[in-house]
Specification:
This protein has 2 domains: about 240 residues, Alkaline Phosphatase, subunit A (3-Layer(aba) Sandwich), CATH 3.40.720.10; about 140 residues, Alpha-Beta Plaits (2-Layer Sandwich), CATH 3.30.70. The protein is α/β, with parallel strands linked by helices. Helices cover about 30% and strands about 20% of the residues.
C-alpha cells in the first residue's frame, strides 16, 4: 500500500486549517564556496521566528539526484507520486487558463522566443515580453489552419501561451522543441511512440505557419513547444485527504495543476499581497489553502542572485498576515530548487518549515538550507509532506490496534 492510500483510509475531519505557503524554486546555492544561499542571504525575520517555534527539514521532490519540473514538483508537494501520476506541462497550462481538455486533445505549453537571422534562438523567452504584447500575438496564431485537426491557441502570461490540437489518433508523447540554450535552432518535435507520430507532424506544420505569421516581430518572431500532454486522471484532494481545498495563485499553470487535483481556484490576484487578501476573504470557506509565489523561481532562472534574495524578502513580509489568521498548520517550502548560480531547476533538496502547536522543537533558529539540514523533520520524500501536515492538524486516525 502506498502512503496516499494509507492516508485515504486514516483521514478524519475536524475544523483545523492547513496552509501551504510555497515560494517557487525556493532552494538555492552559494555563489562562492562557504557563502550563503539566496534564502540564507535574505533578511527573513518572520520566517526565522516561525523556525524557532516550528520544525525544519529537507525534501526530495522526486528522488535524490532527480531534477523536477514544476508539474512533478507540485505533485510531490501535494502528496501524489509524480512518477506514478505523470501530468504534462501542456495539460497544466491549458487547464490553468480555463480550457477543458477532452479525450481527443493534446495540449502544449509554448514559449515565444527571439530568433536571429540564421534561425537560431537568441533569447528563449523573447525578452520576457509583457502580457499586453504577447497576448495579441498568441491570438494572431489562431490563423494557423491544418486539415483534419482543430487548433486552439490561448494566451497565458508574458512569453507563454498554450496550444491544443484536437483530433483522432493524437498521442501526447512528443519531445520538446526547446533546446534549453541559445545559439541553436529550435528542435524538431520528435514522437516517442507510434501513437504520437501524427501529433509531431501537426506540430511541425504549426511551427512552420507560425513563423510566417510572426516574421515581422522584433522580439517574439519564433516559438518553442514543451510539455505535450493528454488529459490526466488523478484522484481528488477531497477523495484522498477529505479536505475542501483552495488554490491562490497568479500564474495559470499552477492554477491548472491545482484544478487537476480537485482544488478550487479562488480570486484573481495579480500580486502576492493580493493573494493574501484573497486568503483572508476565503478563510472561513475552506480547510486547506495552497498559496503560490512565482518570482523566486523567475529570478533564479535569470541567474540574478540579489533579485532572488529580494523576492525571498517579499515572500517573508507577508508571513505575519498568514499567521494572524491562526492556521493549525503552516507549511513554508518550495516545489524545487532554482539556484541563481545554475540558472535552472536543480536536484538539490528543498528546505521545509512546518509550524504548528503540535511541533516537537528542534533547536533551529533560522530558515535556511544549513539549518534545515539539522532540522527535526530530517530528509524525506515530498510525498510525505501532506501526511505530516495532516498529522499535525490531527486529521489522521491511529493505524492498527
Amino acid at each position: 500500500m502506498d502512503i496516499q492510500s494509507l492516508v485515504k483510509e486514516l483521514k478524519t475531519a475536524n475544523d483545523a486549517k492547513i496552509v501551504f505557503y510555497v515560494a517557487d524554486g525556493l532552494g538555492g546555492l552559494p555563489v562562492e564556496p562557504g557563502g550563503p544561499t539566496e534564502l540564507e542571504a535574505a533578511k527573513t525575520p518572520n520566517l526565522d521566528a516561525l523556525a524557532k517555534q516550528g520544525v525544519l527539514g529537507l525534501m526530495d521532490m522526486i528522488a535524490p539526484g532527480i531534477t523536477p519540473g514544476s508539474g512533478p514538483g507540485h505533485l510531490g508537494l501535494f502528496g501524489y507520486d509524480p512518477v506514478k501520476h505523470l501530468i504534462g506541462r501542456g495539460a497544466l497550462e491549458a487547464t490553468g487558463v480555463g480550457f477543458k481538455l477532452g479525450r481527443k486533445d493534446v495540449a502544449i505549453r509554448c514559449n515565444f522566443c527571439t530568433l536571429d537571422p540564421q534561425g537560431n534562438i537568441a533569447d528563449r523567452r523573447a525578452g520576457r515580453i509583457p502580457t499586453d504584447e504577447s497576448a495579441p500575438l498568441a491570438i494572431k496564431l489562431r490563423q494557423v489552419k491544418i486539415p483534419g485537426v482543430e487548433i486552439f491557441v490561448e494566451p497565458v502570461r508574458e512569453h507563454r501561451f498554450c496550444v491544443v490540437f484536437r483530433g483522432e489518433g493524437l498521442g501526447g508523447n512528443v519531445a520538446d522543441t526547446d533546446p534549453q540554450k541559445t545559439g541553436v535552432p529550435p528542435l524538431d518535435p520528435v514522437p516517442h511512440d507510434p501513437e504520437s507520430r501524427r501529433t509531431a507532424e501537426i506540430a511541425k506544420q504549426f511551427f512552420t505557419q507560425a513563423l510566417k505569421i510572426l516574421a515581422d516581430q522584433p522580439k517574439a518572431n519564433g516559438l518553442t513547444m514543451r510539455g505535450f500532454a493528454c488529459a490526466p486522471h488523478v484522484p481528488s484532494y477531497e477523495e484522498v485527504y477529505g479536505l475542501k481545498p483552495a488554490a491562490i495563485a497568479v500564474y495559470p499553470m499552477y492554477k491548472g495543476l491545482a484544478q487537476l487535483v480537485g482544488m478550487e481556484i479562488v480570486g484573481s490576484p495579480a500580486t502576492l499581497a493580493e493573494e493574501i487578501d484573497v486568503l483572508e476573504k476565503a478563510w472561513n470557506d475552506y480547510d486547506f489553502f495552497f498559496v503560490h509565489f512565482k518570482y523566486t523561481d523567475s529570478r533564479g532562472e535569470d541567474g540574478n542572485f540579489p533579485e532572488k534574495v529580494k523576492m525571498v524578502e517579499q515572500f517573508d513580509a507577508q508571513v505575519p498576515r498568514i499567521v494572524k489568521l491562526g492556521p493549525k498548520v503552516l507549511v513554508v517550502t518550495g516545489d524545487h530548487s532554482t539556484p541563481a548560480r545554475l540558472k535552472s531547476h536543480s536536484w538539490h533538496p528543498v528546505p521545509v518549515l512546518l509550524s504548528s502547536d503540535t511541533c516537537r522543537p528542534d533547536g533551529c533558529q533560522k530558515f535556511g538550507e544549513r539549518e534545515a539540514l539539522a532540522g527535526g523533520l530530517g530528509h524525506f520524500p515530498a510525498v510525505c509532506l501532506m501526511p505530516l501536515a495532516m498529522a499535525h492538524a490531527e486529521k489522521l486516525e491511529k493505524f492498527g490496534a
